Amino acid sequence: MKTRTVPVFSVFKKSKALVMFFVGGVPDLKSSAEILEKLPGLGCDIVKIGVPFSDPLADGSVIRSAYQEGLEKGVMLAKILNMIKNSGKMFLDLPICLKFSATPIFFKNFSSFVKKCKNNVIS
């Protein structure tokens, strides 16, 4: 199994970090995979992928709208993990973080979620 070579917070030890965010699955999963593959070449130090969820109260209107679009297209955590895992490149030197509501994780099996993230090289 591949493992991440750079922990998220070690990136900040050397200097400031450019953190790029996008909502996974918007406009579609193929485009999201293409975005993910291009970010390292654009100077990105950390990738943060938003996972659509139904109640993003703390987010602004643009992110809420993107989450809604993702939900309408059936984008879920499992599909985003699969997109990352099947992406053309393995980004073992680029930390990938997920932004999502923790509520669904606590209703399911938390340790299973952590294992899935580890298997899909999520920081």
How would you describe this protein?
By secondary structure, the chain is of the alpha/beta class. Helices cover 41% and strands 11% of the residues. It has a single domain (18-119), classed as Alpha-Beta Barrel (TIM Barrel), CATH 3.20.20. A 3-stranded parallel β-sheet has the order 1-2-3. It starts with 10 loop residues before the first helix and ends with a helix. The mean pLDDT is 83.
Q: CATH homologous superfamily name?
A: Aldolase class I
Shape: globular
CATH topology: TIM Barrel
Distance between the termini: 14 Å
Instruction: Work out the oligomeric state of the chains in this entry.
Output: single chain
Class based on secondary structure composition and strand pairing: alpha/beta
Strands side by side in the biggest sheet? 1-2-3
CATH C-level class: Alpha Beta
> Considering DSSP H and I runs of 4 or more, what fraction of the residues is helical?
40-55%
Question: Which characteristics define this entry?
Answer:
123 residues, 3 strands, single chain, three-stranded parallel β-sheet, TIM Barrel, alpha/beta, 11% strand, 6 helices
Secondary structure elements and pairings:
Blueprint: H1 11-14, E1 19-23, H2 29-38, E2 46-50, H3 61-72, H4 77-85, E3 96-99, H5 103-107, H6 110-119
Parallel strand pairs: 1-2, 2-3
Summary, kept brief:
The protein is α/β, with parallel strands linked by helices and 123 residues long. It is built from six helices and three strands.
